[in-house]
Design goal:
The chain has helices at 3-9, 19-25, 42-57, 73-78, 105-113, 135-148, 154-165, 169-177, 181-184, 187-201, 208-217, 222-234, 238-251, 259-270, 274-288; strands at residues 11-13, 32-37, 63-68, 86-91, 94-100. By secondary structure, the protein is an alpha/beta fold. It has a five-stranded mixed sheet.
């Protein structure tokens, strides 16, 4: 079977009337990766072919369902899609995980590896195993690509994301500020902007242990809770960080001009865990309305 035929065998268009059978019921036996896209979306044109390539490579370990949000607006609304591309993994009839934006291939492989494995080994066992690209390698690759193709501003956004991933926040921000207007509102740029905002808020902030102690001493120390929430979020304990923001929202909604709500919205845009984000969005909404 050719690569093109293999990809077609595992990729299908999702429609409202067949969603129950093709996605929810089908996911009881085979996970379904649902790609929300549109013909006018430039990042979608990068992500879509990579997803189809991986669907062929994984040889049926998952199926790729494509949702054109312009044609299937009801489906997009049901999933609360606010930016594209957005990808969700449905398994056992439920949304298990997801992400927004066009991830590099290495990160796509890492995402899939958390949930599925290829059904067969690569055709050539002697072929060297593909090692995910490090942030430093990505930066070097993108800098060379920009030098060779200066007319592709989307590479500048890719570089800004790679710099942030490598912990070079100042350099990432400089790249972000230099983006043309059409890319400045890209979902990935918005995500990066929120990541930088959260990172800057921690400048000169106490360590996590000190902030936890302040909260234990004074349960109403909102400034400490706010910083603690950001630290926990950026250190990888997203749920614990979101809990701090929710506590402020519940007990001091107007503190610092409603900062808790702003923190939650910024945090949501930086997280890839669709189930976690959905759960905390509902809890935030229950406190606001």
């Amino acid at each position: 079977m050719t690569d093109a035929a293999a990809a077609t065998a595992h990729v299908f268009d999702v429609e409202q009337q067949s969603f129950e059978a093709d996605v929810l019921q089908a996911s009881l036996t085979t996970p379904v990766l649902v790609d929300f896209w549109a013909t006018w979306c430039e990042p979608c044109k990068t992500l879509g072919p990579m997803l189809e390539k991986l669907a062929a490579e994984f040889n049926g370990a998952f199926r790729l369902g494509k949702v054109d949000v312009d044609k299937q607006q009801e489906l997009a609304g049901m999933f609360g899609i606010r930016s594209i591309p957005t990808v969700v993994l449905v398994k056992d009839g439920q949304v298990l995980d997801g992400f927004a934006g066009a991830l590099p291939e290495g990160q796509l492989r890492e995402f899939l590896a958390r949930h599925v494995q290829p059904l067969e080994a690569p055709a050539n066992p002697a072929e060297e195993e593909i090692v995910p690209e490090t942030p430093e390698q990505a930066i070097d690759r993108l800098q060379h690509a920009i030098a060779a193709e200066s007319g592709k501003p989307e590479l500048q956004l890719d570089l800004a994301l790679a710099l942030m991933h490598a912990g070079q926040a100042d350099a990432a921000e400089a790249q972000l500020v230099a983006l043309p207007a059409n890319l400045a509102i890209d979902a990935r740029a918005v995500r990066l902007r929120n990541q930088l905002e959260l990172t800057h808020a921690l400048q000169d902030a106490p360590a996590t242990a000190q902030l936890q102690q302040r909260v234990q001493v004074d349960d109403n120390d909102w400034a400490a809770r706010d910083l603690l929430g950001i630290r926990l979020l950026l250190e990888g304990d997203a749920a614990a960080g979101l809990e701090q923001f929710l506590t402020i929202l519940q007990r001091a909604r107007d503190w610092n001009d409603g900062q808790a709500k702003k923190r939650l919205l910024a945090a949501f845009s930086t997280l890839d865990d669709a189930e976690l984000v959905g759960r905390y969005r509902r809890r935030m909404a229950s406190l606001l309305f």
